[in-house]
Amino acid sequence: MALASPPPPGCPHTGPARRTVVQAAALAAAGLTTGLASTARAAEAPARPAAGPAAEPAARDTAPEALPLRTDRNAQGDILAGFRKDHACFLFLHFDDADKARRWLTGLLPSISTTEEVARFNRAFSRARRRSGGIDPASMATLWTGIGLTHPGLRLFAGKEPFPAAPPGSSAEAFTQGSAARAQQLGDTGTSAPQSWLFGAEEPGRAVHVVLTLAADQPERLAVAVAEHHAGMAAAGGTVLFRQDGATLPGALRGHEHFGFLDCISQPGVRGFDEPDPADPASVLGKPGSRLIPAGEFVVGPERVNKRPPGLPAWATGGAFQVVRRLAQDVPGWWTQVALRLAELQRAGAAPADAGREWLGARLMGRWPGGMPVALCPAAEELPVPGKHPDVGLDYSQDPQGWRMPLFAHIRKGNPRDGLVLTPGRPPVTQAELDARRLMRRGIPYGPVYKPELGEEHGPQAPRGLVFVCHQSDLVGQFELVMRKWVNDPEFPAGRTPRTGCDPVIGPDSPIAFETPSADGTGSRANTLYFGRFVRTEGSVYAFSPSLAVLRGLAKGELDASIEFHTGSVLRPGDVLDAGKARLTLDASGDLALLDTAGTRTWHTYTGGVGHDAVLTQDGDLLVRDADGATVWSSGTGGHPGARLLLRPAGELVILDGKRVLWKASAS
Fold this sequence. Notes:
It is a single chain. The chain has 668 residues and is an alpha+beta fold. The protein is built from 14 helices and 27 strands. Strands 9, 10, 11, 12 and 15 form a 5-stranded antiparallel beta sheet that branches. The chain has a 4-stranded antiparallel beta sheet with strand order 2-3-1-4.
């Protein structure tokens, strides 16, 4: 049923036991033509209105050594810096010939955008924008390029299996299987099932190998680049299986998604990339309370929140898992449903008699259309103060019943913040544990706005929705956990009667419990509302965005599948790094041991009874430490900052300084 008028202007974002490191962490948590233009070259572009009501915080000139990730020329630029363009195109590519595919990749390499390029441009763009009073600088425009490879794609370019082992419960297993095989646990069922997808569920002989992301300020420039890539694919014997365009919505809906809510407000800050606030070094400058999260949650290699080793091959270092999903939005259907449910609440006396549908829509989303959280202004919408981030002061710890911010609200389901109690009667989950679940979202709307008065192409049957993109280092512990355990779980948060229900924006059909204070003010009363699904999955792909160094290797058919143990990671009793033919474990007694395929020890440190954990220091020394942090065993390789520890599939454990072997143990 269609509404007579368009919706109001916030977003669906949408030996020892063979236990892997990833499982341990989860348990602890519950064709291109040659010579394309340089990506950083500027061109003329028309001025555009400001992206949102809140001005961007001023950034000071910070010494490069203080923010080292901003000068990274190895990692791809969309992961930490973000392309942030008004126009984007995602090409889902398939190749029939590996040699031709590698030649295609060789030609693509010079155009792939790095973190340093994108961060430098974005900072200059933001400064120019502030100087012009919030108007985008007309003299600055560029084109960014990113590439993600699926598991079949990595296997094609490398000519071999990219994972020496894919242990149960690991990100390696999830990535290898792909999102279509995991649709059931992700809630992609019914009308969202893979059988109806536009991409991501192809037959094996037609599988997506590459997700090519192109983003530009100017649609004309983007169109030229897309045409060049189509021509290049034909020359490489490849096929564009699907093309997905996206664009920022026009006019008053700029920065919003199709339901009308301002999008992508609460992005995580990254330590070593975002500037800290001098008054609160744990927070991002200009965003008080927005915590700085270790970069290892979004890029494989740097230190993570819980210091857990990712247990991934060396080729993953410097890259990130990428999720790309097409989420179709039935705008009139969703708003009609909101109006019907609001009437039910009003009859029950649980909503103001004069409330409009925006009142309930904001509670389902968790934000008013302009971006302010409902928890901070529950009675009516307030626009953010210019220069002040809308989430300043947002805290759920004093709202355990969800009276101000409903427990089922989209932004609370996807990012529960503080005060989350997983088990009734137990202490709240630590903020650090929640930090380990954050996603770096890079989505963009697709399709025309819903305005039937403008013609059929703007009516209810026109395809529209959100291209959801996110980056993370742990596919299972981040994206999949958020979807499976939070968004799609009616029992999250647990221990509620009646149950909270699923996310009413992007979740499956579900009754939700709308809680308000009881009449006498001593407790909570709940009205159960039923919400059907009006956001459908129409395509989904798991890809990986490798570093530039790894991409150069893949262009030659090379891929290092050794399992890497990174500096700053900590191996604890029971953890296992699995390279297939060899495993490295710190057993329950504290002995660091190398095991062969039969589980027989072929080397160990003789630290049973005293060993507490194992680390690789910044100086290149592999240590086993006791409970007090004292060294009880050392590889003796200190003095080599930047050294790497690799567990090779053939069974060797090596510490390398460049290509020079400093130390080695063997499982043979």
